[in-house]
C-alpha cells in the first residue's frame, strides 16, 4: 500500500497544471461550484473537498486519482512560517497588526464580549477601479461568537 499524497504535493501539481493549461482560479471555482477564495484555498490544501469536487478539479486539470484522494483529506490548517516572507502575505499580517486592536475594540463595542468566527466564515475578494490605482477589496464575513459564562 502506498501512502496518500501529502496535500502540499497535490497543491504543487494543481498549481502547475492550472498554469500550464492557462486556467484561472475563477474557472476552477466555477467547475466545482464553490466561491473562488474557498476553492483556491482548498486546492492549496487548506480545506477538504468533496469527492465530486476533487474529481472535477482533477478531470479539468488532467490529474490522477492520487491528487483527488489528497484533496479530500482533512487539512492541518495554518501556514508555513516561510510564507510570511512573501510580501503579499506579510501585508495582510501588517494590516492586522496595525488595525487588529481597533477592530477588536469596535467588535466589542458593537457586539459585546466575543469574537469573530474563522470557522463559520466567508471571505471575498474583488478589484475596484480607482483613478489613483486599482484597489484590492477583501471582505471577511465571520459569525459573531459571544462568550458565555
UniProtKB/TrEMBL annotation:
Residues 78-149 form the Cyanate lyase C-terminal domain. GO terms for molecular function: cyanate hydratase activity; DNA binding. Its EC number is 4.2.1.104. Pfam families: Cyanate_lyase (PF02560), CYNS_N (PF21291). The active site is at 91, 94, 117. Catalyzes the reaction of cyanate with bicarbonate to produce ammonia and carbon dioxide. This is Cyanate hydratase. It comes from Phytoactinopolyspora halotolerans.
Amino acid at each position: 500500500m502506498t501512502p496518500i499524497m501529502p496535500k502540499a504535493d497535490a497543491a504543487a501539481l494543481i498549481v502547475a497544471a492550472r498554469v500550464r493549461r492557462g486556467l484561472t482560479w475563477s474557472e476552477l471555482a466555477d467547475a466545482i461550484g464553490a466561491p473562488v477564495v474557498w476553492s483556491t484555498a482548498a486546492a492549496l490544501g487548506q480545506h477538504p473537498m468533496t469527492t465530486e469536487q476533487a474529481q472535477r478539479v482533477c478531470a479539468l486539470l488532467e490529474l490522477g486519482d492520487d491528487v483527488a484522494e489528497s484533496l479530500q483529506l482533512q487539512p492541518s490548517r495554518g501556514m508555513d512560517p516561510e510564507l510570511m516572507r512573501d510580501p503579499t502575505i506579510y501585508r495582510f499580517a501588517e494590516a492586522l497588526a496595525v488595525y487588529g486592536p481597533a477592530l477588536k475594540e469596535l467588535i466589542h463595542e458593537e457586539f459585546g464580549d466575543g469574537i469573530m468566527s474563522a470557522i463559520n466564515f466567508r471571505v471575498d475578494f474583488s478589484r475596484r477601479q480607482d483613478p489613483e490605482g486599482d484597489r484590492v477589496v477583501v471582505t471577511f464575513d465571520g459569525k459573531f461568537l459571544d462568550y458565555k459564562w
